[in-house]
Inverse folding.
C-alpha cells in the first residue's frame, strides 16, 4: 500500500507541529510549508521543526503561503492526498493594530491554497477556522448550523471569509472541503501570546497577570492533542455533494450545493477563566497576583462547543481535563525554560 501524503501549511507552528508529529507517527509522508515569521519567538518554531526533521518522512519548505505560485508548485510536485491548511496570522488583539497582515496571510494565503486545490485536486482539503467565527452569537453551545454573521474582530472576519471562499470553490470545482473551528487550543509548545503561556511566565517571574472582564469569562479549552486527534480522524470523513437537501442529516453542516462542511473541535464544556487560572496556580504552587481589567476590544465573554457532529462523523470526542492539560503545559514550560 502506498504511503499517504499530507501537505501541512504552518507546519512549524503550534498546531502544525503537533499535527505533523502525529501524521508522521501514523506512517504518513509530510511536506511542511512555513514562513517562520517573527510574530513570536522564531527559536520556538526552529526547535519544533528540528524535532520534525528527525523523521525521514518529513521535509519542509520555507516560504509564504500567500506567495504567488508557492502552493501550486508544491501540490504539483508532491501530489498530496490531504492538504491541511493551518498557516495564518493568528491573534484577536493583534488584528486591531496590524490588519494588513491578516489580509495577506489569511485572505490571500487561503485564496492561493484554494487555487492550487482547484488545479491539483487532493482527496480532501481541510482548512483551519476558529470559534471566533461565532462572534456575538449568544446561543450556546455553539453549533455549526448556527448563522454566524456578527464577527467581533478582524481576525474572526478573515476566518469566516475563508469559510465562505472555500464554499464557493467546493461548489464550483467539486473540491471536498472541511473547515474545522478550533476552541481555545492549549498545551506544550504553545504560542507565547496565548493566555496560558503569558500567565505561567508572569507567575513564575512574580509579576501580575491581566484578568479581563474582571474574571467573568469562560472558554471551551481544548488540549492540543485532542484537537489533532479530531483533525486526523476528519481526514477520512470526506464530504460529498448531496443529491438533495433532504439527504442531509439534522445537525449536519454539510452544504446542500457543495462537498463542504464545517466541524467544531472543542472539549464540549465551558470552563470559567478563574478555574483555569486556579489550575495553573495549583501546578506551580504559586498564587497569581491578579490585575482585574475591563473586557478587551474584539473579545467575547464565553465560548462553548457543540461537538456532536465531530462525534457523529468520527466517533471521537475530545476529553482531556483542564487540570491535566494545564499540568502538562506547566511541566513542559519549566523544563523548556529551566525554571
Amino acid at each position: 500500500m502506498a504511503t499517504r501524503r499530507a501537505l501541512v501549511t504552518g507546519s512549524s507552528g503550534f498546531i502544525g507541529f503537533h499535527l505533523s508529529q502525529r501524521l508522521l507517527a501514523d506512517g504518513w509522508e509530510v511536506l511542511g510549508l512555513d514562513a517562520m515569521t517573527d510574530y513570536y519567538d522564531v527559536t520556538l518554531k526552529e526547535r519544533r521543526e528540528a524535532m520534525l526533521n528527525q523523521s525521514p518522512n518529513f521535509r519542509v519548505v520555507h516560504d509564504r503561503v500567500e506567495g504567488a505560485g508557492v502552493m501550486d508548485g508544491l501540490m504539483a510536485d508532491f501530489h498530496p492526498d490531504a492538504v491541511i491548511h493551518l498557516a495564518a496570522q493568528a491573534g484577536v488583539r493583534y488584528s486591531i493594530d496590524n490588519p494588513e497582515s491578516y489580509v495577506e496571510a489569511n485572505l490571500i494565503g487561503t485564496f492561493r491554497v484554494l487555487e492550487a486545490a482547484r488545479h491539483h485536486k487532493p482527496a480532501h482539503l481541510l482548512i483551519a477556522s476558529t470559534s471566533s467565527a461565532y462572534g456575538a452569537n449568544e446561543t450556546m453551545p455553539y453549533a455549526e448550523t448556527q448563522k454566524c454573521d456578527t464577527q467581533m474582530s478582524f481576525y474572526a472576519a478573515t476566518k469566516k471569509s475563508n469559510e465562505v471562499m472555500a464554499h464557493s470553490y467546493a461548489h464550483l470545482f467539486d473540491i471536498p472541503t472541511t473547515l474545522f473551528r478550533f476552541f481555545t487550543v492549549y498545551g506544550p509548545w504553545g504560542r507565547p501570546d496565548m493566555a496560558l503561556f503569558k500567565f505561567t511566565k508572569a507567575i513564575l517571574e512574580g509579576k501580575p497577570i491581566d484578568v479581563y472582564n474582571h474574571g467573568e469569562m469562560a472558554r471551551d479549552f481544548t488540549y492540543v492533542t485532542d484537537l489533532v486527534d479530531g483533525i486526523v480522524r476528519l481526514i477520512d470523513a470526506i464530504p460529498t455533494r448531496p443529491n438533495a437537501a433532504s439527504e442531509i442529516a439534522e445537525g449536519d453542516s454539510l452544504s446542500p450545493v457543495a462537498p463542504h462542511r464545517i466541524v467544531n473541535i472543542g472539549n464540549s464544556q465551558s470552563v470559567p477563566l478563574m478555574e483555569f487560572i486556579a489550575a495553573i496556580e495549583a501546578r506551580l504552587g504559586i498564587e497569581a497576583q491578579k490585575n482585574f481589567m475591563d473586557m478587551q476590544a474584539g473579545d467575547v465573554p464565553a465560548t462553548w462547543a457543540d461537538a456532536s457532529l465531530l462525534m457523529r462523523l468520527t466517533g471521537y470526542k475530545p476529553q482531556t481535563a483542564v487540570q491535566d492539560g494545564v499540568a502538562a503545559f506547566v511541566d513542559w514550560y519549566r523544563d523548556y525554560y529551566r525554571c
The first helix runs from residue 14 to 25.
